[in-house]
Amino acid sequence: MAKAEVEVITSERRRRHWSRADKERVVAAALQPGATILRVARAFGVHSSQVFRWRQQLCGKETPPPGFAAVTITADPHAPAARTQGLIEVEIGAEAKIRISDAADAATVTAVIAALRAGSR
């Protein structure tokens, strides 16, 4: 038979109060290599969402630094070897895909960039 731990709250408070030191101890346990939020939450007797909230409060929100998307330039595997045409292909997530084939002059590329800028506003 599994041994169960029961906590009896005798005060009039309905919720438990966690000190900052207790929260830091829970968050530190959650940040250990190999630790999972669910396992730590169960060990300390709290809900996993509470551990996430305390981690945000104590560590701050993890936001990726702003930057550019990675760009890879590769040869088109479906193009014939003797192809002399140019091809510019721009994908914006799953929302838009723009392909300019043949020789792309500066006016065409400028018009595409202007349309992209206008559409993002």
Task: Please provide a written account of the structure.
By secondary structure, the protein is an alpha+beta fold. Among the domains are: 20-59; 87-119, no CATH class. It contains four helices and two strands, in the order αααββα. A two-stranded antiparallel sheet has the order 1-2. Helix 1 (20-30) packs across helix 3 (48-59) and helix 2 crosses helix 3 (48-59). It is elongated.
The number of helical elements comes to 4
Sequence stretches where pLDDT stays below 50 over 5 or more residues: none
What's the average pLDDT?
A: 78
Beta-strand content: 5-15%
Bin the helical content: 25-40%
Distance between the termini: 63 Å
Within the largest sheet, what's the order of strands?
1-2
Quick one: biggest sheet?
Answer: 2 strands, antiparallel
Q: What is the 3D shape?
A: elongated
Order of helix and strand elements from N to C terminus:
HHHEEH
Structural classification = alpha+beta
Number of strands: 2
Report the radius of gyration as a whole number of Å.
28 Å
